[in-house]
Design brief:
By secondary structure, the protein is an alpha/beta fold. It contains ten helices and 27 strands. The chain folds into three domains: 196 residues, FAD/NAD(P)-binding domain (3-Layer(bba) Sandwich), CATH 3.50.50.60; 133 residues, 3-Layer(bba) Sandwich (FAD/NAD(P)-binding domain), CATH 3.50.50; 103 residues, no CATH class. The structure holds flavin-adenine dinucleotide.
């Protein structure tokens, strides 16, 4: 980066954390507990908590606190914890780029309106930058470009923080949890919610959210439907909705016009990693987050990733657990305890699996894998097997049997809206690693 070569003010710390959302706050609290004394949290917003201050519904913290909290309450628990420490919180500050200043030093170039450009030099870094929403441009809906087309998170902020309604007659595209929660929220504010339209033949939202947010409020859910045209000059006046076939292509002759002044898009979240890319961190094409090992360490020594910047999580409790682990491993790294960088196994997503994290494992121990299914499956079985060797990876040993099943676990029901955690005990993982012997392994989900 050109900017980083210039002379800027320098600040030093042991552990830097970019992002003051639940992941960043949890990582900071755990790092402090472990005894790291000079920690800095860098947050671009004027407040801490990440996305949670605008999530005023309940459903947060049922596992970590054994209580059902709202988003702001969950965030406040960690803000209070962090404020009791001497952790430095640098708000209104944007992390622009990352650079490896020396073997054991990571440099983060930041900017804020008071100090301009400042280099923060740290021994270790946790990236907790959250995610961003997919927009109309990314799903290519044809038609005009009137006002009234918004992403779900933007409307959530408008209604819950700014106190404005986007409109009165609402159409929602996408039935993930955010779309469902916003359907109920807008109905409670007196809007006429025409329906939630979902491209897939199944909803990616939790069953409880379909019941509590749609059924209880008589909001219809239309599966295998999408918006095929946006109409209106200046302001949105209507959308054209079409049914889609099993290849997700709109079916001619099924179009119908729905009058509305607001189209709410809840069409997916993408981990925010523009900053990670400046450091040359490898990004997994499936998760859109950094490729990590079992320590949540990226391909760059001393840089860890957690929360929604690593992969999009459904539950904040899991974000907190993973952030604790990232902080523990950053502490271990700073004490010279993470040394092995020879890949034991590399895990690839196979049939019916959209994402699998971590992507590679370095050492023998208990292993936890986060797995996201591509489609809903009843009586599913999760399996790990040896996979054909890839070019450029270790030479295939002679004793490898291809496509041999190394691990299998029965699961009752899996669906894309809920991540599955697969725990593999150390002894079972040793058997997998011995059998794979430096070979790639693949995981799949199939019906029993
Ligand atoms: C609408 C909605 C409803 C949800 N409902 C539930 C629920 O009912 N129950 C539940 O358990 N979970 C729920 N979740 C999920 C939960 O909120 C997330 O998993 C959690 O907020 C992720 O935390 P995070 O810290 O990774 O990301 P975020 O909360 O997004 O925080 C990331 C932070 O990083 C900062 N940042 C990013 N880039 C930079 C940079 N370059 N420099 C400085 N700062 C930066 C951002 O400003 C932000 O503050 C919901 C999420 C949404 C969006």
């Amino acid at each position: 980066m050109i900017l980083i070569d210039k002379e800027h003010t320098n600040k030093e710390c042991s552990l830097a954390i970019v992002g003051g959302g639940p992941a960043g706050l949890s990582a900071a609290a755990r790092a402090w507990e472990l005894g790291i004394k000079d920690i800095m949290i860098i947050e671009r917003e004027p407040y801490l908590g990440g996305i949670l201050p605008q999530c005023i519904h309940s459903g947060f913290g049922t596992r970590i606190f054994n209580e059902e909290l709202t988003g702001p309450e969950y965030a406040q628990r960690f803000i209070d914890l962090v404020k009791k420490t001497k952790i430095k919180i640098i708000k209104n500050t944007f992390a622009l780029s990352i650079d490896k200043a020396s073997k054991r030093k990571i440099r983060i170039l930041t900017t804020n309106k008071y100090e301009g450009l400042v280099n923060i030099n740290a021994k270790s870094l946790v990236l907790a930058t959250g995610c961003r929403e997919r927009t109309r441009g990314q799903i290519l809906i044809p038609g005009n470009r009137p006002a009234g087309v918004f992403t779900a998170g933007f409307i959530q902020r408008l209604v819950n923080i700014e106190g404005y309604l986007p409109g009165k007659k609402i159409v929602i595209l996408g039935s993930g949890d955010i779309g469902l929660i916003m359907a109920r929220r807008l109905k409670l504010e007196g809007c006429d919610v025409q329906g939630v339209f979902e491209l897939m033949p199944f909803s990616t939202g939790l069953k409880r959210n379909i019941v509590q947010c749609l059924d209880d409020y008589d909001i219809p859910l239309y599966l295998s439907h999408t918006v095929t045209k946006i109409e209106g000059r200046g302001s949105l006046s209507s959308v054209i909705i079409s049914r889609v076939d099993n290849k997700l292509k709109p079916i001619k002759g099924t179009e119908r016009k729905i009058k509305c002044d607001t189209l709410l898009l809840s069409v997916g979240l993408i981990p925010e990693n523009e900053l990670a890319k400046t450091a040359g961190i490898l990004i997994d094409a499936n998760t859109q987050g950094p490729e990590v090992d079992e320590n949540f360490q990226t391909n760059i020594d001393g840089i860890f990733s957690c929360g929604n910047s690593l992969f999009v999580n459904d539950l904040v409790d899991n974000v907190t657990d993973d952030a604790f682990l990232a902080a523990e491993k950053a502490f271990a790294y700073m004490n010279g305890k993470i040394i092995s960088r020879n890949i034991l196994v590399r895990i690839l997503p196979g049939e019916n699996i959209a994402q699998i994290i971590p992507q590679k494992i370095y050492s023998l121990g208990n292993v936890s894998l986060w797995v996201r299914a591509k489609i809903p499956l009843k009586n599913a079985v999760f399996e790990i097997f040896t996979e054909n060797i890839r070019d450029g990876f270790d030479k295939k040993p002679d004793n490898i049997i291809e496509n041999k099943i190394l691990f299998s676990k029965k699961l009752r029901f899996v669906f894309p809206g809920e991540l599955i955690k697969i725990n593999i005990a150390k002894d079972d993982f040793k058997d997998i690693a011995d059998a794979a012997n430096g070979f790639d392994i693949k995981a799949l989900l199939r019906i029993k």
